[in-house]
Amino acid sequence: MIAKITLGTRGSELARAQTLLVEKVIRTEHPNIEIETKIIVTRGDNTTVVDVHAGRKGLFTAEIERALLAGDVDIAVHSAKDLPSHTSPEAQIAAVLTRAPVDDVLISKHPGGFASLPYGATVATGSVRRQRQLHWKRPDLKVVDLRGNVPTRLRKLAESEWNGIVLARAGLERLGFPTNQTEIGCESGRFSVEILLPEIFLPAGGQGIIALQIRADDKIAKALLESVNSRETLLCLQAEREFLSGLHGDCNSPVGVHATITTGKMKMRAQVFEGESPAPRQAQVEGASDEGDQLAAELLRKIEQD
């Protein structure tokens, strides 16, 4: 068994927290292994302005993947939703941790949640998907772009005239912010919290999943990660990525897709926003949990026929 591994990750507070989770699960299974973490600066970390028409996929993962293929790290730690649908054939997602909650969360200056936002309120989010979902149900809202890590985004909310921001529940919880309460407090102040309805705010593919990428020919790392892999989560991620690949979806595409497995059955739902239509195309499929590729293809056909 390998005596030492090097993990590659971004330097953000959330990326470090996620990497600590990876360290913990690996050490639980392999207590004698030495683990080193290497911080890698990505293009997304150095970019203050993003061309939304060019998409955001790969902004936070490409440099880490390159370090992996160069042999500088043994395991690349990614937020799965940041990974492009097509990655290098020389790398593979060998394992994932058990999925965290996939919900989106409204952090607001107003009690009462989404329905209580004032008419014409300003809500900030960096996700095109969330922007379209917000406009779908509240066309009166002014939706603006949002960048930065979670503490930065909370500070921007406090210092601006914005009424609220939308963040991923998984990221908030991994940073220690409770989402099962009506309020959260931080250095920036106190804000109202509402978990948004997943029927409307369907998550991005891979949301809530930490993906562990290795070199495709690294049999030692692959064997190491077999014991920490959540098989059902990986099956769901593969199905979601297959759907996005068929749709040519990326982080810039206004697409939500979510797969779940219950008692051996997989259920997949998708939303696709197109053109100027405020409402998305929507579809749902069900089948065996090991038939994710077929379910993704069926879901794509249903979406295209809607």
How does the overall form come out from the CA principal axes?
globular
> Given the helix and strand composition, which structural class is it?
alpha/beta
Distance between the termini: 51 Å
Strand content is 25-35%
Helix content: 25-40%
- Reported by name, the CATH topology of the largest domain is D-Maltodextrin-Binding Protein, domain 2
Number of strands: 14
Which CATH class of the largest domain applies here? Answer: Alpha Beta
Q: Spatial order of the strands in the main sheet?
A: 7-6-8-5-10-9
CATH superfamily of the largest domain: Periplasmic binding protein-like II
Please tell me how large the radius of gyration is: 19 Å
Give a description of the structure.
The chain is an alpha/beta fold and 306 residues long. The chain folds into 3 domains: 1-97 and 208-229, Periplasmic binding protein-like II (D-Maltodextrin-Binding Protein, domain 2), CATH 3.40.190.10; 104-195, 3-Layer(aba) Sandwich (D-Maltodextrin-Binding Protein, domain 2), CATH 3.40.190; 231-306, Porphobilinogen deaminase, C-terminal domain (Double Stranded RNA Binding Domain, 2-Layer Sandwich). It is built from 8 helices and 14 strands. The strands form 3 sheets. A 6-stranded mixed β-sheet has the order 7-6-8-5-10-9, with helices on both faces. A hairpin with an 8-residue loop joins strand 13 (265-272) and strand 14.
